[in-house]
């Protein structure tokens, strides 16, 4: 059946066609089984009749051979007629065939034959099909009875074949010419000796029955039964289809028509389907009405929520867009549409799809020299696969400038605190240089002493030059300039700059730097400012402490470098721990601090992809700077 045609049929037609096919197939199989059953019965009945014929013929033959023939032969002997042979009374084959001739008058279909390849009577000689049957009983069945079908002259027969064995009485007539009765010899004009000896199979005896007519009659009966079954099935299905249509299809058509009207907008979800039925179809319609009521409510709520979300989405001033993997914008707000930058950062979007986590990055657009903070958030499906990405761009140019100003302000405040120490660091080598110059001016020194004094003067000037250069670099405001440096050396250089301040405050320095820490790409000047801010905070925290110990430690842990500044001061009270990184929050007296040190330091560390946090400590405060080793590379450029 054509698939397209089948799909175009109605449900009732499909059910009718399927059920009719099933019933027709069932009727056909049942009729076929009935045919084989009747065929077996006919064959069994035929075999029974043929076995009866064989039994009668065997009984008749035994009578002739063991009763009638010996009696006649005795009579012939008494009459001196030893060479006489009465064919109609003494030949078992002749008697059997004559009796079967009378039998066929009532049962013409049954045919009896008793034949041999070397018969006395030429009429009993083998025909072609007899040789086939002879082979079956003599070779295939080793002399037993054979039953089966065989085609004789284009007609199929049911056959029972038995072998005729040579027994001693048979040799009276079926042997050499000098032994057989003279009358038999003359009657059949025998010319050759018969080759038989006792125990040979001298021929076959068979009964055949034409089965074609019986099978045709069975086929006609079965076809009649099959036709009646199919017709009955058709009538039954027509009645069932009418019931099926009225009880099921018609209500379903009403529901389908209501769905179509809903889709076309002709009725609303509030419009119910009326029914008076209380059966399963009625319950289905009632459930549909309830579902329509809930859908109407949810549709209204969904529309209200959608309008609310749309208003919120459009009210956001930052450009927002929903992007697919092909970097195509599917949904965007007005701010994005009006933004001069509608870029899709393909590499970053692909990274979010692969890593399945948000990505944040600051970007510098070179056209107008403005900074943007790009945030990419993954959108997941039920299997936690990323299917879309939400892109948010925030203009942070003013924030960047403010951060730079805050960093510079805090840097200047820090410079004011170390200015006294710097003056002492510069004054000491200057005083020594002046004394050495006065000694040189007196011109009483030897050449070796003068050279020594000049070397000391040069060393002092270089130290002053290095201090002034570091101070100038520290006060310069710039973008992140990444270079690979040793964090340990950066800390050591900072401590050299602040050594006089540590000595003035009588602070004991405990320095524990891990020598295996690799070089890291950072902004040297800005990271120096972070370390200096933490150093100054630790010094100020220990002003009134009886024991002043500052522990600076660098360690390598799980692909991260940790630098800790731990003091022995009074520590930070619990009630203000959550505010210490807020801008302008300070516990120092006026003139001692701006409240920007920790907030600026936090911003610098986060720009480097790291963390700055207050760790738990039994005594004092312990600030930790944590920088990932693979956070930034030298070719990443400015933040």
Automatic annotation (TrEMBL):
EC number: 2.7.13.3
Transit peptide listed as a keyword: no
SMART domains per UniProt: HAMP, HATPase_c, HisKA
GO cellular component: membrane
PAC domain span: 357-408
UniProt entry keywords in alphabetical sequence: ATP-binding, Kinase, Membrane, Nucleotide-binding, Phosphoprotein, Transferase, Transmembrane, Transmembrane helix, Two-component regulatory system
Domain HAMP: 246-300
TM annotation in the entry: 15-38, 222-248
Name under which the protein is recorded: histidine kinase
């Amino acid at each position: 059946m054509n698939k397209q045609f089948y799909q175009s049929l109605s449900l009732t037609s499909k059910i009718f066609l399927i059920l009719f096919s099933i019933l027709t197939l069932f009727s056909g199989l049942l009729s076929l089984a009935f045919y084989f059953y009747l065929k077996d019965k006919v064959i069994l009945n035929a075999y029974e009749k043929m076995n009866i014929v064989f039994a009668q013929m065997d009984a008749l033959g035994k009578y002739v051979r063991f009763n009638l023939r010996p009696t006649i032969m005795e009579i012939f002997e008494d009459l001196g007629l030893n060479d006489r042979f009465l064919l109609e009374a003494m030949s078992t084959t002749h008697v059997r065939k004559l009796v079967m001739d009378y039998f066929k008058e009532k049962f013409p279909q049954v045919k009896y034959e008793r034949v041999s390849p070397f018969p006395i009577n030429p009429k009993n000689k083998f025909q072609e099909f007899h040789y086939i049957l002879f082979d079956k009983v003599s070779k295939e069945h080793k002399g037993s009875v054979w039953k089966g079908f065989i085609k004789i002259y284009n007609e199929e027969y049911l056959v029972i074949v038995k072998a005729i064995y040579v027994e001693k009485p048979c040799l009276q007539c079926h042997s050499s010419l000098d032994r057989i009765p003279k009358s038999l010899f003359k009657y059949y004009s025998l010319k050759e000796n018969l080759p038989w000896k006792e125990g040979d199979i001298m021929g076959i005896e068979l009964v055949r029955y034409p089965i074609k007519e019986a099978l045709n009659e069975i086929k006609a009966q079965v076809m009649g039964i099959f036709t009646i079954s199919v017709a009955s099935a058709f009538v039954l299905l027509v009645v069932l289809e009418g019931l099926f249509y009225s009880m099921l299809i018609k209500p379903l058509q009403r529901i389908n028509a209501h769905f179509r009207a809903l889709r076309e907008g002709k009725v609303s979800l509030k419009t119910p389907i009326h029914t008076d039925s209380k059966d399963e179809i009625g319950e289905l319609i009632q459930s549909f009405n309830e579902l329509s009521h809930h859908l109407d409510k949810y549709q209204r709520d969904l529309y209200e929520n959608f309008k609310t979300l749309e208003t919120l989405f459009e009210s956001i001033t930052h450009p927002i867009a929903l992007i697919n993997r092909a970097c195509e914008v599917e949904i965007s707000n007005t701010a994005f549409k009006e933004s001069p930058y509608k870029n899709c950062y393909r590499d970053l979007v692909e990274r979010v799809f692969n890593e399945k986590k948000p990505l944040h990055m600051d970007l510098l657009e070179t056209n107008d020299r403005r900074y943007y903070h790009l945030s990419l958030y993954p959108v997941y499906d039920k299997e936690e696969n990323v299917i879309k990405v939400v892109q948010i761009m925030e203009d942070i140019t003013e924030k960047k400038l403010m951060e730079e100003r805050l960093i510079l302000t805090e840097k200047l405040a820090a410079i004011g605190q170390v200015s006294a120490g710097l003056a002492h660091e510069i004054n000491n080598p200057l005083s020594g240089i002046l004394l050495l110059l006065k000694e040189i001016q007196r011109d009483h020194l030897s050449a070796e002493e003068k050279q020594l004094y000049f070397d000391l003067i040069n060393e002092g000037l270089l130290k002053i030059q290095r201090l002034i250069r570091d101070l100038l670099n520290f006060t310069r405001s710039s973008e992140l300039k990444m270079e690979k440096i040793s964090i340990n050396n950066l800390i050591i250089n900072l401590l050299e700059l602040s050594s006089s301040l540590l000595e003035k405050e009588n602070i004991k320095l405990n320095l524990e730097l891990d020598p295996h820490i690799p070089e890291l790409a950072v902004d040297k000047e800005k990271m120096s400012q972070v370390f200096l801010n933490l150093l100054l905070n630790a010094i100020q925290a220990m002003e009134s402490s009886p024991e002043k110990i500052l522990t600076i430690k660098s360690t390598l842990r799980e692909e991260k470098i940790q630098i800790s500044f731990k003091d022995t001061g009074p520590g930070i009270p619990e009630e203000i721990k959550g505010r210490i990184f807020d801008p302008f929050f300070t516990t120092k007296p006026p003139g001692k601090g701006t409240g920007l040190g920790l907030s600026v330091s936090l911003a610098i560390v986060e720009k480097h992809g790291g963390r700055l946090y207050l760790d738990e400590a039994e005594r004092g405060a312990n600030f930790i700077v944590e920088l990932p080793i693979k956070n930034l590379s030298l070719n990443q450029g400015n933040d």
